[in-house]
Amino acid sequence: VTPPKTDLPQGTLDLLILRIVGLEPIHGYGIAQRLQQLSRDVVQVPQGSLYPALHRLEKRGLLAADWQPSDTGRDAKFYRLTSKGRAQLKEETANWARLTGAIQLILRDAKGGAA
Amino acid sequence: VSRRDAEIDDELASHLEMAMRDHLARGEAPREARRRALLELGNPTVAKEETRSVWAWTRLEQLATDLRIGARILWRAPGLSATAALLIALVIGGNMTIFSMVHAVLAKPASGIGATRLVTVGWVTDGEEHPVTSYPNYVDVAAASRTLKPMLAQQFGRVVLTPRDGSYAVQGATVSTNYFDTLKIRLALGRSFEEREGLSGTAGLVAVISHHLWRERFGGTPTVIGQPMTINNHAATIVGVAPPDFQGVVFSEHADVWMPFASYAEVDGQRQILTDRLAQAVFMIGQLAPGVSLSQAQAELATIADHLPHVPGDRARTRTVQLFAYSATAAGDSLVAQRGPWFLALFSIVTALTVLIVYGNVANLMLARAVGRAREMAVRQSLGASRTRILRIFVAEGLAIGSVAWIAAAIVAFWATRAIPRMMPPLDGQGSRILFDFSPDGVVLGYALLLILIGVVCISAAPGLRAQRQALQPLLKAGEQGIVQGRSTISNGLVVLQLVFSVLLLTTAGLAYRSLSVLGASDLGLDTSQLLLVTINTRSAAATPQANGALLDAIVDRLRPLPGVRTVTYARRPVQSYWPTEQIAGGVAGQAFAAERDEVGPDYLRTMGLGPVAGVDFGERVTHQGAVAVLINQRLAEALWPGQPPVGRTLRLGSYAQPVEIVGVMPDAFYNGYRRQPDANFVLSSAAPQPQEMTLYVRYSGSLDDVVPEISRGLRAVDGRVPIVYTRTMDEQLEGLTWPIRALTVLLATFAIGSMLIAVMGQYAAMAFTMRRRVRDFGVRMALGASSDEILASATREGLRLTGAGLAIGGVLSVAAAHGLRSMLFGVTPTDARTYVGVVVLLGAASLVACYLPARRAARIDPMQALRDE
């Protein structure tokens, strides 16, 4: 039984990619797998938008990439974080924490008011 | 770009491979593993395109890609693409050609002129426009004006030139000394005039000759500079040779000799024209000073004209100026200059209409193909191509067709504008052709580009819109026909639109043609058949008006008894676009009138095929001494002495109110050629004119080839010093006056017929296409018992319904358009029945054929075959 899937909120995919790539250099398929595992299958990444997102980040200079042999033996494109990407990750993570904290506050207060 | 593509492909492939391996590891069958891996990735085409589009950084790059796609699509359907490009190329090429010519005729300066921002100064006396003014007026205006600087003056005329080897009649102009400098013309040889040569009292006459004359008469040797020759019996020295492409500022009056105005007047004993403000002689062109607009110059010149000295005896109440941009034809009271704006307006309408017709047609072609490709587009959309993307494909196709068509159109236009001048008649009888440069310039190319861009929008919008509205499902289902059943409103709408434009164009061209045919020779009121015009020059043979009169009488006496000659007369001015206007006074109330005047010889009316309404013709002899006799036309007689016999009364003629006796009344006719006002007044006088160019009118019988040599022998026998300037028939003369308009009208008509054919072809294509789509429908009906004749009738009727709609809408619009153009129509009403009936019959017949042929094919199908094919 698969748990219900949730679409990612707009703009969060970039943050998640940065986070995962920040752990170790990794290829696109690996990122998709890791996202699924880490979110316990809740986050369904539309894989059609994964590669445009990766290339967009690469173009912005947040990610760098090179071709290395993968564990299948075939060459795969491995992405890693640039220093600019690392700074961006830090800033985005802080932003996200602030935002979710604020949303939590609102949700909790509203609930209390209604009760 | 392609390396990036390969990399994205590799990346996605490695992704798929890894995903498949994981699925296999979970124990899935290979086929299932592949399916699930693909499913997870989503639409690979979309993923690839979107990933690639991250890197597509400029719109230009996208445009290039689109163009490449467009070109590839076109390449796959060469027949249809070529047809579309050819149709557009032809119509745009044709338009460019006409636009180039109209532009050249109406807007360009005469060839060889380097100066820009030139302005022609026209004069308006009591509301009537005249191209000329007096020399002292020119001097005063030129000295006072700050907005038009410099300003030149010229007077055109024919002269007898006598170099060492004989006498020749050539065209010449007397000009202000700044003439060549103002026009920025660099002489091929020698020098231009010096300022002192323009002052009276200088010794000796100098002249600049044309390149053509230099080559023909002076052997093209440099020693011509400083060489003496005789012009109109006056010794002159050649000081310069004009460049080869320059032959004067007005295209119909090209000159071979130029002399300074003032010093020529001096040696010619016409000193009075330098001071007489009533002697309307010179034509003026000025250059706008830097930063000055035409309206500023107009305002300044109007003020200057107001302050010109008043002359005792001048009956004109108001004299003012009217400036207009100079062009080789916008000079003088010529028919071209008058009708120019009319043709320009008409041309704009025609252009818009023909182009729209062709675009409607090509759009229909593209639409027909888009229907055939509906399945392909549906597949593309289902694979994730966005609707914008699909529209872009159509635009790309349109752009590719447009680019090819533009280049082809430019080639057509360059070729045509070079070919057409070779077909034009020489304007004068000396074999020199008009120097016209019709080739398209930047303005014309830009104009064509604009038309093409509009076309690209039209031809991509129709199929594009269709694709937007299309439902995908039925097209993708296996076994379903790739073609949607039913009728296409867009396509039918386009056919009707084309027919409407066609009707508009045909009626416009028809009305223009009818206006022109109203200007036909018969409507001059003269008998123009078997009438020969022989222009001679008496400058070298006679010195005074009296001697000139005697010479002319001697010539008439000599020619009259020749075989084949019925009557002979002469006139100071032949039928031409401009006769000078004189003020006349007399009549019951003593009021003043303006009338065009000519000096003519014996038997004038008889030679013109007319007779006097009252009184007498000039008879076999005219007196040159004592009281001058005149003939006036009926209209003038009615205006001066309503209800009373005018014969025997006295009329006062000209600025000096010279008394003359009316000997006869002549019928109203256009003695001088075509005029805008049909109610012109004419006065013919028997006074002998100054020795100059004269035209003999010979009414002949038999063959022209026999008469012409007899006449030249006769002239030589009277006086060998009288050269024949040129000989032509009256019909040729009239044709020379109207050919530009005739040519433009023929072009208009060609265009209208051409676009009708295109519209009808379009209807045929749309009809054939509809019939093909409805094969199944017809098959069913025939299987149910409909006869082939019934199918034929119903299909034809259906097609003709569009024709009916087109004719009705087009007819209404045409009447409205013609009402708008009413002031420009000559002699026909906006609802001219003949034009409309002609258009309905012509278009109806062509349209019937276009509907009948495809309908017949539809009626001939075998119902079983049709049903089985489904």
What characteristics describe this protein?
heterodimer; A: 115 residues; alpha+beta; 3-stranded antiparallel beta sheet; 4 helices; 3 strands; globular; B: alpha+beta; 6-stranded mixed beta barrel; 16% strand
Account of the 3D structure:
The complex is a heterodimer of chains A (115) and B (870). Helix content of chain A is 59%, strand content 14%. Chain A is of the alpha+beta class and 115 residues long. Chain A has a 3-stranded antiparallel sheet. In chain A, strand 2 and strand 3 form a beta hairpin. In chain A, helix 1 packs across helix 4. The model of chain A has no long low-confidence stretch (mean pLDDT 82). Chain B has a 6-stranded mixed barrel. The relative contact order of chain B is 0.10. Chain B is an alpha+beta fold and 870 residues long. Chain B starts with a helix and ends with a helix. The radius of gyration of chain B is 37 Å and the shape is elongated. Chain B contains 25 helices and 23 strands. Classes of the chains: A alpha+beta (115), B alpha+beta (870). The interface between A and B is medium-sized, with 21 and 23 residues.
